[in-house]
Specification:
4-stranded antiparallel β-sheet, 19 helices
Length: about 525
């Protein structure tokens, strides 16, 4: 299939809009379709998707901007794949939005959307390039220009995205992995031993898990474990390339251990190497478990960057990873992609995004990073007045204007070991807060430049300016709630990080489309107020 851009859409004499009455056309022009047709559709960059298609002369592709636009509308209007395809056939608003009113036959079929997603995922697997992320963020830049949003004020927050899977018990997990491999072996003509044949039978799951009362759950898990070993012996390397075989091997590695006598047994809780990364459900091997803020989460985590102006905002960037990915790392990744700004850009985020490294990296890009709460140990306020050298390796003067007679930078602990005269510290009014260590003939103060900066941050958090930034950041917390309620991010009909991230990207595009609609409606309201006649 060859790539052909859909850059020009000429109206034909059979254009469906010609059959509308004046009243119908007026309503169409006032609907969401007008904004999508004029602002969103023309901003979809088709060229970035040309790599998905052949360079050879062949049958042309379905217009990419129609496919991408349909996937955005699908999320914006809460349609399924089948519903968006049918709506494009019979609803003129969809045709008007996607510039297909002059098409003799609408270009989407029942497989168009799924095939396009599969192409994008295959390309990302091969190259590591997420085309949907590139498309959505470039589209956000176009919308931001229309809304006259500059990157001067930004805020950031993350949200847990639930995997669309069930958290299996250990028995269910072992049974499912063994049954999946058994069915693949039967499909390839392997004759299973009599004791293991039941795994490939229909309805055996319920019979084994719920209706077998002779053994308790732990004993049945051990039975399945031994059956797994027998199946692996039969495989003899003939199924190494199947996902079912690989997942069973992974499960045995994570949940079992081989003793010195060669027998395999289940691991005790304390013997598990990294419980947060173990396999939880073979339907989604990448989904992992995490505890955060008193809650238990199974799945992934998304990070949102929102650019804010006066009475308007837009999600200009997003990231999506396994849920053990830290907020601090999200910030590092974001800063790595940022340019060096001529004018100061402000990013306000939660305390987990902070840290000396992130603040320093942000400063290199002309970005001021402000975190609205404090994590870790709180240093005394007096350390703000301690004077360090520019590189932070030497303490020059303390708050009492006393200079040390010897300093040594401890590179391993990243702090400065400073020797003062003992009499200077004994008579110091800040002795109880500073708490130096007294030795024979001198006093020792161990202090890092990081502690000084943390003390400065704590002092700044008591100011009125900081209170305004804290209120500003609170606004971004509406996004996770909106994505859950309206865009159903916890019910994504896919498994795996790449697959769910693709759907999540289109949900962000749909969210931005609604923000654009709100912005245009506010302009109309302002125009009506200024011209009441």
């Amino acid at each position: 299939m060859a790539f052909v851009p859909n850059s020009s859409q000429q109206m034909s004499f059979t254009d469906s809009t010609f059959n509308l009455t004046e009243r119908e056309r007026r309503f169409l022009e006032k609907s969401w379709a007008k904004t999508f047709a004029d602002k969103i559709f023309p901003a979809i960059d088709e060229d970035i998707f040309s790599v998905l298609y052949s360079n050879k002369a062949s049958r042309p592709n379905t217009p990419v901007n129609v496919i991408v636009g349909a996937l955005i509308l699908k999320e914006a209007l809460g349609d399924s794949d089948d519903e968006i395809v049918q709506a494009l056939m019979f609803d003129i608003r969809y045709q008007y939005a996607l510039h297909t009113t002059s098409f003799e036959e609408q270009p989407l079929s029942d497989r168009t959307l799924s095939r396009f997603r599969a192409r994008c995922l295959a390309y990302e697997t091969e190259t590591g390039i997420d085309l949907i992320h590139i498309c959505v963020t470039s589209l956000a830049k176009e919308i931001a220009e229309f809304m006259r949003l500059t990157p001067a004020m930004q805020r950031m927050d993350s949200l847990m995205v639930a995997a669309n899977i069930r958290n299996l018990s250990l028995l269910e997990l072992f049974y499912t992995c063994v049954a999946n491999l058994a069915k693949v072996m039967v499909a390839k003509g392997i004759d299973l031993p009599t004791e293991q044949k039941h795994y490939a039978e229909k309805d055996d799951y319920n019979a084994f898990i719920y209706h077998q009362r002779k053994l308790d759950a732990n004993e049945r898990t051990i039975v399945v474990l031994h059956d797994a070993e027998k199946l692996l012996e039969i495989c003899e390397g003939g199924f190494d390339d199947t996902s079912e075989y690989q997942l069973l091997i992974r499960l045995l590695k994570e949940q079992t251990i081989t003793d010195d006598d060669g027998t395999r047994r289940l691991r005790d809780k304390k013997e598990k190497e990294d419980p947060s990364k173990v396999l939880l459900n073979p339907s989604d091997p990448e989904a992992i478990f995490r505890k955060k803020a008193g809650g238990k989460h199974l799945g992934y985590v998304a990070n949102l960057t929102e650019t804010v102006g006066e009475n308007k905002s837009l999600v200009t960037d997003y990231a999506y990873e396994q849920n053990i990915y830290s907020d601090s790392q999200f910030m590092k990744d974001h800063l790595d992609q940022e340019p060096v700004y001529d004018q100061e850009v402000l990013i306000v985020a939660d305390g987990a995004y902070g840290g000396e490294g992130n603040v320093a990296k942000a400063d290199e890009h002309g970005i001021r990073l402000i975190t609205t709460n404090f994590t870790g140990r709180k240093p005394a306020d007096i350390f703000v007045e301690f004077i360090f050298s520019e590189d932070g390796h030497e303490l020059i003067e303390c708050i009492n204007h006393k200079k040390p007679f010897y300093t040594h930078y401890d590179e391993h602990n990243d702090r400065c070991n400073t020797h003062f005269k003992k009499c200077d510290c004994e008579s110091c009014p800040y002795l109880q807060e500073c708490k130096p260590r007294f030795n024979v003939g001198y006093s020792l103060k161990e202090l890092s430049w990081k502690a000084v900066n943390r003390a400065k941050q704590l002092r700044f958090m008591k100011t009125e300016e900081f209170t305004k930034y804290a209120h500003f950041r609170n606004g971004v917390e509406a996004l996770p709630s909106l994505l859950r309620r309206k865009y159903r991010v916890d019910k994504i009909p896919a498994h795996g990080k790449k697959q769910t991230r693709l759907h999540f990207g289109f949900k962000i595009a749909a969210l931005n489309f609604h923000k654009l609609l709100d912005y245009e409606n506010s302009l109309i309201c302002c125009a009506c107020e200024n011209n009441p006649a």
